[in-house]
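RECORD TYPE: inverse folding
INPUT: structure tokens
STRUCTURE:
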């Protein structure tokens, strides 16, 4: 039986990849390779819907979130993305793991400013699509390099960013050799998304769970405090 690839799969995949390492929602400036597509899915609509933020109190000095945090485990987050999309496609789309390299550091300051500092961060994997009887393998690489800054507010354990400056950072997704550069705002105006839910596991371990994508339970990013 002939199966089609919905273009929303690429939109959703790009979204959750970038939200994992970003201070805001991002959009694309070029399109992914052309495939036969079906109509826009409900998953795309819910994934790109901005969550409305209410006025939130500032973080207090001494809060466990304050400090510099190195990303130490991206694999659980990646595995949860693969699992969710495979389930969404009823098994028609699967993934094989790839390489993770480079560094990423989140900084949360007591004055409610923050930054993401990356040094050639890359995550690669292969998406396997079952079209008719011939599977198609598509190599994909997430690339982030440079620094972005933003202000943030806290509501309970939820983090909302605003006044983002991403002029000094490259965020791109390479799909089968076609590079797509990401820009701000398609997935929500600055300050309208509660992006992360944070949890201080202990004084040296922080988890950041992406909560900006509806109907998708994603594993948290795990970070260690810079000593």
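DESIGNED SEQUENCE:
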């Amino acid at each position: 039986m002939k199966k089609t690839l919905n273009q929303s799969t690429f939109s959703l995949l790009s979204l959750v990849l970038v939200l994992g390492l970003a201070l805001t929602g991002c959009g694309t400036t070029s399109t992914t390779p052309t495939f036969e597509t079906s109509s826009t899915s409900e998953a795309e609509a819910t994934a790109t819907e901005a969550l409305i933020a209410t006025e939130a109190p500032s973080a207090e000095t001494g809060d466990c979130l304050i400090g510099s945090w190195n990303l130490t485990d991206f694999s659980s987050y990646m595995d949860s993305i693969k699992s969710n999309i495979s389930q969404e496609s009823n098994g028609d789309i699967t993934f094989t793991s790839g390489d993770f390299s480079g560094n990423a550091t989140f900084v949360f300051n007591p004055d409610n400013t923050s930054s993401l500092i990356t040094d050639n961060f890359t995550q690669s994997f292969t998406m396997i699509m079952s079209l008719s009887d011939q599977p198609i393998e598509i190599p994909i690489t997430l690339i982030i390099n440079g620094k972005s800054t933003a202000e943030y507010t806290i509501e309970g354990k939820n983090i909302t960013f605003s006044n983002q400056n991403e002029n000094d950072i490259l965020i791109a997704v390479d799909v089968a050799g076609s590079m797509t550069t990401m820009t701000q705002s398609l997935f929500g105006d600055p300050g309208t998304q509660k992006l992360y839910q944070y949890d201080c596991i202990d004084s040296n371990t922080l988890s950041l769970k992406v909560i900006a994508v509806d109907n998708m339970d994603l594993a948290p990013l795990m970070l260690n405090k810079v000593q």
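NOTES: The beta strands are 26-28, 67-73, 93-108, 113-131, 134-155, 158-175, 178-184, 194-202, 205-210, 221-225.
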